[in-house]
Amino acid sequence: MAISLEKGGNVSLSKEAPGLDSIMVGLGWDVRATDGTDFDLDASAFLLKADGKVRSDSDFCFYNNMNVGGGGVVHQGDNRTGEGEGDDEQIQITLSKVPADVDKIAIAVTIHDGEANRQNFGQVSNAFIRLVDNASGKEVVRYDLSEDASVETAMILGEVYRHASEWKFRAVGQGFKGGLGPLASSYGVNV
Amino acid sequence: MQLQQGEKRGLGDLGIEARFRVAVEYGLSDMDMAAFGLDQNGKIGDDRYVVLFSNLKSPDGEIELASGPGNATFSVDLDRLPEKVHRIVFTATHDVRAVAESRPLAVTLGDGKAQFDVASCLNDEKAVMMIEIYRHSAGWKVGAVAAGFAGGLAALIEHFGGEVGGHSSAIEAAASPPVNLTKIKLEKSNPTVNLKKTGANFGEITVNLNWNQGSARRGIFGGPRPVDLDLGVLFELEDGYRGVVQALGNAFGAFHVEPWIELSGDDRTGAVSSGETIRVNGAYFSHIRRLAFFALIYDGVPNWQQTDGVVRVTIPGQPEIEVRMDDGRNDRRLCGIALIDNVSGDLRVTRHMQYYESQKPFADDIGIYLQWTAGSKD
Fold it and tell me: Which residues does the UniProt record annotate as the domain TerD (chain B) (predicted)?
């Protein structure tokens, strides 16, 4: 039974799924039910040092830079509408491959052209992030963010981080105005 | 505060109590405002909690609608709402035009605690969810939605899990009070609708006249006498048989034999909530050439404005057709309301809405020529 986190909650991945190494991070949202421009949500990941910044621009994992951190974090491609069951976008994380100086991996979702299309996360239904143990195929932890979102066009959904000798996951649910560019800048990426 | 599209706020954070008002201000005629009480799946679970022009309040008055020109106000009491109602979505719909044409279209919550300018967020939607009030673990919240469907009311109902136009519709299935969500309003600008048979025939065609008797306005000295409105129909059959079905002269007609038209009875006061009804046997529609429905003020001073009359034509499997008697002329006793014509098997309904001294000039005007003598109901 997967753990369902509330905003701000965290869980020890090492305890929940002993031996966990290969993780599929799934992100999903409902396709737009009303008329208008579809919501094109983009998943991205930032490999961060202890100071909360990227080591270099190449630590920014997104649709134009899919394989990052020596194969530790791999983006699986872009879904343009949210159509289909289950995950809409996926990012694979292999914990053993994550460089030692990367302290945490922040996972974010942004609305493509959100400002131009006057779209924000308050309009997106049933967005979630979940972590699946690839070895067992089981969902380890899940966070449904729908009610924590409002007028932001970028959301930091969660972060996978080192804590002493183990890996943990935190449900962040932190909105960010301005979209992907400003979000990346805040992590020290030159965009 | 001004809400932005997509914004979600706790009602408590906005200083809004459990009993509050949702006021909608709009600037486009013939817009309909509704509040859809939905279950936890966002679907219509109990249509008595769909509050709109034809169902002005939920069972215990937890949601009540009051309308005026260019405004609609919903009074909401969240504490009294049953558990099963998880969400109330406030909608604006128009039959033919984009809701965005309405300027303003604005929602005010809690007498000014929060406002939302809906119109500026819209495109070509004819049915729009303006705001929603919903249960959340931390209490009730409000979401500024401003999204909808170019497909209009039908698409909106489908979104809420209802069906439109079918016999099996959950909306139509509920017996009381009737909530009619599909309808065609015949007006000056669109006076005609053509219907094709959906089955072997049109089934039982019901024409109902209902009016406001206005008793609430009468003072302790009695005030004006109640208005007695009679529904009648002039008919012309394919075989040339012409006549009238009306309470006057006890000409109640017959449903199963010629003329296949029957008046259900005479409501002399307007106190019978169902008003007056004429049924037409659609199985014999091929024998019918033309029907001309009229309302007659038999007794009392002709005061059409006060009657607030509405005629509804109901045909199984077809959208309800509504004609409002809103162009009153006080000096004439008879209002020719609507015509039904058999046009090569199709059923054409036309808004007529003209006033006459009596049946004869109406009949002459529409070309059903009869011999007339004075009659009485008593």
Answer: 10-160
Output the CA torsion sign for B250, B255, B259, B262.
positive
User: Do B130 and B259 lie in a common domain?
Assistant: no
Asked whether residue B104 is assigned to any structural domain, the reply reads: yes
Give chain A positions within 8 Å (CB) of B147: 34-36, 123
Per-residue pLDDT tens over the stretch B287-330:
999 999 999 887 766 777 777 788 888 887 777 888 887 776 77
Q: Out of A33, A121, A151, name the one closest to residue B4 (CB).
A: A151
Alpha carbon distance B16, B8 (integer Å): 14
Q: How far is CA B323 from the centre of its chain?
A: 9
Residues of B with Cβ-Cβ distance to A150 under 8 angstroms: 6-9
Report the pLDDT value the prediction gives residue B214, as an integer from 0 to 100. Answer: 52
What is the value of pTM for the model shown?
0.61
Given pLDDT bands bounded at 50, 70 and 90, which one contains residue A96?
Answer: very high
B122 touches chain A (CB under 8 A): no
Q: What is the CATH number of the domain that holds A91?
A: 2.60.60.30
Report ipTM for this prediction.
Answer: 0.81
* pLDDT, position B225: 55
The range of the structural domain enclosing residue B69 comes to 2-177
Instruction: Answer whether residue A100 shows pLDDT above 60.
Output: yes
- Residue A34's closest CA among B203, B50, B18, B158? B158
Domain count, chain A: 1
* B16 and B96 within one domain: yes
All residues of chain A having their beta carbon less than 8 Å from the beta carbon of residue B151 are: 35
**CA torsion, points A191, B5, B10, B13, in degrees to nearest 10?**
80
Gap between the Cα atoms of B369 and B74, Å rounded = 50
B261 shares a domain with B134: no
- The arithmetic mean of pLDDT across residues A78-91, rounded, is 73
> Chain-wide mean pLDDT for chain B?
83
Amino acid identity for residue B232 in this structure: G
Q: Is residue A84 part of a domain?
A: yes
Q: How many domains does chain B have?
A: 2
Beta bridge partners of B91: B34, B129
Residues B235 and B135 in one domain: no
Whether residue B149 is found in the same domain as residue B232: no
Contact B148 A33 (CB under 8 A): no
The alpha carbon of residue B291 and the mean position of all alpha carbons in its chain are separated, in whole angstroms, by 22
* Residues of chain B predicted below pLDDT 70: 163-183, 198-199, 212-227, 265-273, 300-301, 328, 373-378
**Residues A7, A4: Cα–Cα separation, whole Å:** 10
Burial code (b: 16+ CB inside 10 Å, e: under 16) for A117-148 equals bbbbbbbbbebbbbbbbeeeeebbbbbbbebb
